[in-house]
Every structure is written in structure tokens, then in C-alpha cells.
Amino acid sequence: MEEQVLNTAINEDEPYLINMGPQHPSTHGVLRLVVSLKGETVKNVVPHIGYIHRGIEKMCESLTYPQIIHLTDRMDYLSAHINNEAVCLNVEKALEIEIPERVKVIRTIMAELTRIQSHQLFWASYGMDLGGQTCYFYGLRDREKVLDIFEETTGGRMIVSYSCPGGLMYDIHPNFQKRVNDFIKYFRSILWEYDAILTGNVIFRERTIGIGKLSLEDAVSYGVTGPSGRASGFSCDIRKHDPYSAYDRVKFNEVLFTEGDTYHRYLARIEEMKESMNIIEQLIDNIPEGPYTVKMKPVLKLPEGEYFQKVETARGELDVFIVSDGNKYPFRMKFRSPNFVNLGVLNHISKEFKIADLVAIAGSLDFVIPDIDR
Amino acid sequence: MTSEPWWKIFYDFTPFTKSIDEGLRSSMSPFWAVTTEMVIVGILFLLFYAVVGLFLVYWERKVCAFIQNRLGPNRIGPYGIFQTVADLIKLLFKELIPIKNADSFLFNLAPYIVIIVNFMVLGAIPFGKGLHAIDFNIGIFYVIAVSSMSVIGVLLAGWSSNSKYSLIGAMRSGAMIVSYELSLGLALITMVILAGSMQLSVIVEAQRTGWFIFKGHIPAFIAFIIYIISGTAETNRGPFDLAEAESELTAGYHTEYSGMKFAFFYLAEFINMFIVASIASTIFLGGWMPLHIGSWEGFNKIMDIIPPFIWYLGKTFFIIYLIMLLKWTFPRLRIDQLLTLEWKYLLPINLVNVLIMAFLVLMGWHF
Amino acid sequence: MNSVVQYFKGIADGIWSLLKGMSVTNRYFFSPGKIVTQKYPNNRKDLVMFDRFKGDLIMPHDEKNEHKCTGCGICQINCPNGSIEVISKTITTEDGKTRKAIDKHIYHLGKCTFCALCVKSCPSDALAFSQEFEHAVFNKELLTKQLNKPGSQIMKGV
């Protein structure tokens, strides 16, 4: 394969191989796709991963549980808080700690804000993938408001490190509720622009409708979760099926489509932003009083055994699996990251489409490369 | 000439250019007089090219910044107006990277073809009353013929770079320009039917009683929209920037170019846009002709206060703003949709439009 | 006939959707008041960071040049990246007792991931984050900082 990519002599029957990445504007990082072309038609896509493999799972084996949290921020950096929460929930489950209601509600609000900002960035970069560069700035402009909320409460913008085993690092900022309410009011009033610029645009619809169809069977067998899976009708929302934190007390709809094409993967994310705002609105004005953290032992030792927790990040199902030998470090830590699994379906759904569609399909699966490589 | 006040020159350059011509002819043989005039015009065009190119780059960056809620360049000079000059100096000093396995002769030739084509078209455009380098009697035909040659530069650049991305970009560009040339020409032909002449000075003069877009009403307006769409495609600008689609092909046909050679392509793109806009303003919006409405003498007098070349620049920049707005709003089309748009929509509509216009002219239903 | 209607309806819908998008961008072009970017280096003076912003790890000193650090090393144990080194010494107090005190509290900014575990775990609240965020330096060694000021002493009653 390597030689073929470098080889410039082209025969009629040989595939025309091009490297998309590791430095390429539309792979959102350092993903490398070796694409076989026939004319402009994609015949085969081979993803090459591992360009920013940092060995997070191995590093976790020499860190204590509170220390692991800051590494999970750096896996899927757009769902940083949800990753934190996953590890915290797992550790809390293992230690059998009862978490205060306040913590659960705040975690849920933060997780939904994380989901909104992640989908905003998806909207922004998806517009750019398709060539509409103004979308990028409008998306980032609105995302900035969420990041400001994060920064005020947690001190970090993307890398929040807000949850810790037993609760939260700090209490919410006094301005938190007001800011969140302001943001939701603002964002609801601005969402029509997203539709005017991209969703309703005839060029955008032509580019995305019917492109990269993923059937329900394939979505299930490839394990495509998150909005990408739900666009194909795979009901896989863990918030609904296996509620954690405060999701059991809020009412929301699982966004489900049946078409499974690029357009509906996009639409699923837009609809999820609206659902997330509904969830936040139900919780934000009645955050229960109470402590923001439980008093924990200075050294956390998980009892011997295996622990498993799954959460719904902005891109799908994140599973955290801890094997403990009773020490303060985990014996083995495994993350099932949604992006890695979703990447597997790329070759299957992008065959026989044009090279421009490959960009649209890859964009609609919404990869975060550090999460693929870990 | 001496009896007129000096500022009258802004309203009509003819006496000024005529006096220069007469002066030159009286002091040297006709051959040398024409040669000197050509050199002067050439130098003026070089200056004009650089100034307009740099200004358009700046203007584009400001327009897209304001559309995107940003400030745009604001560091060098007031409001950042010297930003592009600084960029140019940077590009001048950059290394021209030789590409291994590239066909170096064609690789170096390609940017010049694009630039030369630009100059050739600029020569035929009337910038103001009396500011017109060559007034061909087949002006529009010449413009269409010459401007379609720029695709050769793009194809050469893509082919000789010996890079896979460049090749795909060049092939896309070839398919696109060849097909959009058709509707561009037909849109202009629609207006030629209305004007009854291909000579640009005659076309402008014919709009003394009203611009063609108002005179030819519905078919002229359709032709205008088609012209803007296919003109945007001709210049490889978004949403038709498939040839350099940065999210797909990194930079398309000029991926391998660096330094000044890249700057040539970059400038040529902007000058192309300027050319498309100025032809549109000449043919549809009356060129340098002020806004006149039929026989409203008073109104026409007031409009005449503004000098013709200001009218010309104003119209051109209005159309440039329209083209920029298109680029910064829409996502990019796919190559097959691009061809669908041309062959299934623009071309049939255009053909019908030509018929309607001919009928209109025959019946005398235009204003 | 139906397909002809579809054809023209498609054109009309398409143009309408494009015009809707253009109206949004056009509106923003003519409303410069909606610009959200800041002229960063020029607005340094009135740039206020949030009070919890994690810019730089500091050890607050009072006006008598006293800090709260006892040199216990808990921050060093809690740091996941080894960005804190606590070097302690033994001092003799006025009443003749020997006790452990801090000699140098070394902080490697280049290794820090701003997880805030040191600040949270400090039993005497000796560490804090400052709002400083301009960390760029020309020399890598400058990223290694000593947090306790020279000649500083531990606060009484800590």
C-alpha cells in the first residue's frame, strides 16, 4: 500500500491512490485515509490511525483514580466533561458511594452543555467541510458562549476536569444559572440562522441527502452509536435506556430517524441540541441544595473486581471498564471510544460516492481523532 | 481644451488622450507614436493590475470578516489597508520551491498564461468616458474568446505539478470552465441582441437612455443572474471553487506552487473576478454611463454630476460584493451537480431566454 | 406535465433557499455592531479573566512575605505529571524546636495540565491559580518556576 501511494505511474486498471491526511484540512486532525479512486469515484477507503496515540489506557495503570480524570479530558476533547463523568460514575459505583442530588443535577447540566457545544462545533466544521466557511464562524461564535460558562465555573474552557470521584471539584459559580438561562434564550433565538444558512440551503441538501446511507442492520452490526447511529434508526441512547446521573427525572425525546444518510446524521445533531436545551431547562432552575462533593478517603482503593460504566457522549457510547486488583492504581483500564467504532463504518458507506462526498460522509460521522487513537 | 476647467477631465478623458496622441504624432513617426502609446498603456495597466489586485484581496478579506462577525485585517496601516502590500512583500521574498519530477517549463509557464489572459481582457474594457484602450467592433466576442483561454493555464498548472491533488483539481476546472463558458457566452449574446452591436463603446452609448437591465426587463434580468452564476464559475470562486476545493483537494491545481508564482494565481483569481464584474457592469448596468431614466432631463443632469469612472467603479464593486456574498454564504457544489446545474438548468433557460429576447426586440417591447 | 412543474418548482425553491441564506450574511455585513472578536493585544488593560480561570499556579504571599506552605508534599504526590517538586529543609524555630519547612517549591509549567488537583488537595490552601495566561517564553528553562519567593517564611498559625 505504501509503495502504491508513492508510485506516480498510473495504469488504467490500477487504482489512483491518494492520501487524505495526516495533514489534510478535512480530516479534523491527524487521521490518514488512503483513498482508491477511479476518476473521482471512491472505490476503497483505508483509514490509518495512531498518529496521536498517547497510550492513555496504559498511562492510567500508573495513576490514581482522581488523576485519571484529567487524562480522559484529552480523549474526546469535545465531550471532556462526559468523559470525566464516565470514570467518576464507575469509581463511585465500585466504592458504593451515594452521590448528592446536587452533584447529579449539575453533572447532567454540564454534560448537556458539553453536548451542545460539541454539536455546535460539528455544525461549524461541517459547513466548512462542504465549503461554506461562514458557518464555521457562526458556530464558533455561539460555542464561545458555552465555553464562557465552563470557564467561569470550572476554570477551563475545553479541558474542564470538573468531575472528580465523589462529586465535583468546585461548586457552581453564582452566575452559573443566569448565564445558562441567557445562553438558552440566545441560542433558541439564533437557531433559525443555522437552518437558513445550511439546513435549508438547496446546495447543502443536494450535497447530503441520499449520500452515505447506513442501514439499521449495518449500524447495529458495526456498532455505530450516538447521533450517527440514531439517524439510521438504531435506538442507542444510553441516557434513555440506562439512565445515569439525573437523566431518569427529565423528560426528553430520543432523536430517531430512519433514513441514515448524511443529511439525517446532520439533522440528528441539530435536533439533539434542541433536546439538550429542553433537558437543561428542566433542571437549571431547581438545582437542589446540598454539598457539592462527598468526603472521600485521601487514597482511593477500589475493591478487587471488574467495573463497567457506559455513558452517552456527544458522539456515541463511551464505555469505561476498570479491572482492579485492590490497589490504588487500576490493574487495567479500557475505554470503548465511540469514534473508533464509528470510523469502522466509513469504508462501508463511502464506496461508489465521489471524493467530495467522502468529505461530507467523514464530516457527518463527526470524528475526534484523539478519541480514536487515545 | 484650455478654456475648460481642469476638473472637466474627470467627466471626459477623450480630449486629454487625444492631446497626448496628437503631441506624440507631431514629434515622431506614426510607428513610434503608436509604440510609445502602447508602452504607456502597458505600464498603466501593470500599475492598475497591481493596485486593483491588492485592493481586491484586502476588500475580500474585509467583506468576509464582516460577514463572519470578525474585524478582518486591522494591524498594518489604518484599518489594515496595507496588509496586502505586506503580504505581497512576504510572497516576493519567499522561496520558489522546485518540484521534483515536475515538468519545470510548463510548471513555470502556467502562471504567466493566466496573467497574460487577464491583461488581454483588461485592454478591451471601457473604464470611463475616453478611458478605453482598444475599442474593437467585436469587443464582446473578443472578451469571451480570450477569457476562456485562462483554463489552459489552470490545466497546465495541474498537469505539470505531477501531484495527484493538482491533477484532480485541474481536471475539475477544465470540465467546469468549458461548460460554463457556454452559458456565459449565451447570456452575453442575449444582451448583444438587445444592443444590436458587439462594440463595447456602442453598447455603453446605447444605455444613455437607461441601463440594459431595465430596458430589457425580464430576459435581461434572467441573463444577468445567469451571467453572475457562470461568471463566478469561470473565475473558480466559491461556491464553484471545486478546482481548489480546500477541504477536498487541499489547494487544487496550485497546491505545489509557492512564493510569487502562487501569488500570480491568487492575484489572477481576483483580477478575473474584477473582469467578470466590470463586463457585467458594462453590459447590464451601463458601464460608466450614469443612471439615466428616459427623458427625465433634470434627473439625468443630477446623475451626471458624478464622474463616469466613479459610476463604473461603483457598479463594478457592487457586483464584486454580490459575487463575494455568494462565495461566503454557500457551501460548495459537487462536480456532477455543477454540470447538472449547467446542462439541465442554465443552458436550457438561457436558450429560451435568447429566443424571448429576440422576440422582444423584434416586437419592440423593450423600453 | 408534472415533471415540468417539478422542474420549475425546484428552481424557485432553490433560489428562495439561497436568498434566505444570503439575507443572513448580508445582514451581518451591514451590522458591524455584532462583531464578536476582540483586538487582543490592544485590550490587555481591560481584559478581565474569570476569577476561577486556571492560568498559572502561584503561591500567594502576604505583605510580610509569608506563605502558607508547610512543605508537606501532598501536591507533589497528587500531581499526575510530576510538574511539582517540593524541596524541604529542616529549620529551628525560636523556641528551639526543629521542624520541616519548605526550601524550594518548584513548578514545571511545561508539564502542567491544569487539572487543579494540587490546589484542591493542599491541606493549608497554600496554592492558587492566577489569571496570567501569557506563558510564551524564548527559553525552555523559564517555564520552570520557583513558587515561594526568596526569603519568604511560613505564616504563623498554619
What features would you describe in this structure?
The complex is a heterotrimer of chains A (374), B (367) and C (158). Helix content of chain A is 48%, strand content 13%. Chain A is built from 16 helices and 8 strands. In chain A, a hairpin with a 7-residue loop joins strand 7 and strand 8. In chain A, helix 5 runs antiparallel to helix 12. Chain B is mostly helical and 367 residues long. Chain B is built from 15 helices and no strands. In chain B, helix 4 packs parallel to helix 12 and helix 12 crosses helix 14. The model of chain B has no long low-confidence stretch (mean pLDDT 82). Chain C is of the alpha+beta class and 158 residues long. Chain C folds into 2 domains: 35 residues; 99 residues, Alpha-Beta Plaits, CATH 3.30.70. A 3-stranded antiparallel sheet of chain C has the order 3-4-6, with no helix packed on it. In chain C, strand 3 and strand 4 form a beta hairpin. The radius of gyration of chain C is 28 Å and the shape is elongated. The mean pLDDT of chain C is 83. Chains A and B meet through strand 1, helix 5, helix 6, helix 8 and helix 15 of A and helix 7, helix 11 and helix 15 of B.
Structure, briefly:
Chain A has 374 residues and is an alpha+beta fold.
List the helices and strands and how they pair.
The complex is a heterotrimer of chains A (374), B (367) and C (158).
Chain A: H1 2-6, E1 16-20, E2 32-38, E3 41-48, H2 56-60, H3 65-72, H4 80-95, H5 101-129, H6 133-154, E4 163-164, E5 167-168, H7 176-199, H8 202-208, H9 216-222, H10 226-230, H11 238-241, H12 262-284, E6 305-313, E7 316-324, E8 332-336, H13 338-343, H14 346-350, H15 355-364, H16 369-373
Antiparallel strand pairs in A: 1-2, 2-3, 4-5, 6-7, 7-8
Helix pairs in contact in A: 3-4, 4-5, 5-6, 5-12, 5-15, 6-7, 7-12
Chain B: H1 14-27, H2 30-67, H3 83-93, H4 104-122, H5 139-147, H6 150-160, H7 164-195, H8 200-206, H9 212-215, H10 217-234, H11 246-249, H12 259-283, H13 297-304, H14 308-329, H15 335-363
Helix pairs in contact in B: 1-2, 2-3, 2-12, 2-14, 3-12, 4-5, 4-6, 4-12, 6-7, 7-10, 7-15, 10-12, 10-15, 12-14
Chain C: H1 2-29, E1 56-58, E2 66-67, H2 74-78, E3 84-92, E4 98-108, H3 117-121, E5 128-130, E6 144-146, E7 153-154
Parallel strand pairs in C: 2-7
Antiparallel strand pairs in C: 1-5, 3-4, 4-6
Features:
heterotrimer, B: 367 residues, mainly alpha, 15 helices, globular, C: 158 residues, alpha+beta, Alpha-Beta Plaits, 2 domains, three-stranded antiparallel β-sheet, 3 helices
